[in-house]
Amino acid sequence: MAPDAAITEEVAQCEVMGSVDSGEVDQFVLADPSQDDSWMTVALTDAKGLNAWC
Predict the structure, then answer these.
(1) How far apart are CA 41 and CA 36, in angstroms?
(2) What share of the chain is helix, strand, coil (3-state, %, to 5)?
(3) How far apart are the C-alpha atoms of 25 and 44, rounded to whole Å?
(4) Which domain holds residue 26?
């Protein structure tokens, strides 16, 4: 994940958060900041837009 990610105490009220990690393959990262090692990634080209989630 990005080195400037939010500190857990700052997002304690958040259920999950998402981010785009740029690299050789851009990836969408979905994480629960209140749990250790609770995250997943998917290629950005395969990620669904907000309209698909609602």
Answers:
(1) 15
(2) 20, 30, 50
(3) 8
(4) 19-47
pLDDT in tens, 25-38: 999 999 998 888 99
- Residue 8 forms part of a structural domain: no
Could you read off the pLDDT of 1-54 as tens digits, one per residue? 555 665 556 555 668 888 999 999 999 999 998 888 999 999 999 988 878 877
**Residue type present at position 34:** S
Instruction: Please tell me the pTM assigned to this model.
Output: 0.61
- Total tally of structural domains belonging to the chain: 1
Comparing CA positions, the residue from 13, 19, 15 lying closest to residue 1 is 19
